[in-house]
């Protein structure tokens, strides 16, 4: 996606060379795994986690953005490769997994090359929905496959299912609004009074998971996915379009915490590390954006729900009205003009 910001007169770059060290490291990982080197899979997860951390650090500055992107892709590729090597599927199953990965790579590449800049927010929201689907399905499947899960596993499955489902429906609501598929409507009945009963039902499901047997626990984990799915749509669908970029960063944070829960559930250190990184960075970014907008995060998310104590944004201070002619005169008589572009200007 970085290529969409490239200008025609920019010098020729050879970014494909950045794939060489990553490919060499992944090849070495595969060879070591085939040779039965002890703890090589944990080393692979650690390597991939460090690459993802370095990738986010690199993307924070324009001069290192290309390197950061390459490190991030290397980290994800290394994590997927390590997981496949550790599971050691039989040949038929491995071929199916590789076929799915190949198809997803083709689709992702096509989307990344075709999406325009102004469609990035809804594209990111759609990708978050995919993360939520993976977290929810993995959490339910993991609970089903363990006949007698311990307390930590139960908690991880429950929160992975809950946060994942909220990410799915919330991201879909953000996508359809930002893509202009819906302007208004699609509201749930009695939407203003749904949130508290849904949260209470989720709390009851959490208690039932520990009080009942495996069947009751599975019903609780599955039920909370449905409940939080409704909650995610209800909250996100009521957020104003101007606040939707903040909502997307919140959903990004949700997807990170869902990954973190999966890490505890599957005993995968990479998912725990990367999930914590995404969750915390998404939360920090949401806070920074709210500060820049002179809003509170609670006001952005729950501002339309009086029952949750949120208040609508208050306009404080004074405003100055102007006209096209006055603005033209100001620009003509100015020595320096600073234009700060934002999402609204990009769409306009």
Describe the protein in words.
The protein is mainly alpha-helical. It folds into two domains: 1-100, no CATH class; 114-309 and 338-348, no CATH class. Helix content is 70%, strand content 0%. Helix 6 (151-178) packs parallel to helix 8. The longest helix is centred in the middle third of the chain and has 28 residues, at 151-178. The chain is flat, with a radius of gyration of 23 Å. The two termini are 21 Å apart.
Shape: flat
- Tell me the structural class: mainly alpha
Our Rg estimate from Cα atoms comes to 23 Å
How many helices? The count is 13
Helix content: over 70%
- What fraction of the residues are assigned to beta strands by DSSP? under 5%
Whole-number count of domains: 2
- Report the count of strand segments: 0
Mean pLDDT: 85
How many strands, which pairing sense, and closed or not: the largest β-sheet? none
The low-pLDDT segments are 305-313
Order of helices and strands: HHHHHHHHHHHHH
- Terminus-to-terminus distance: 21 Å
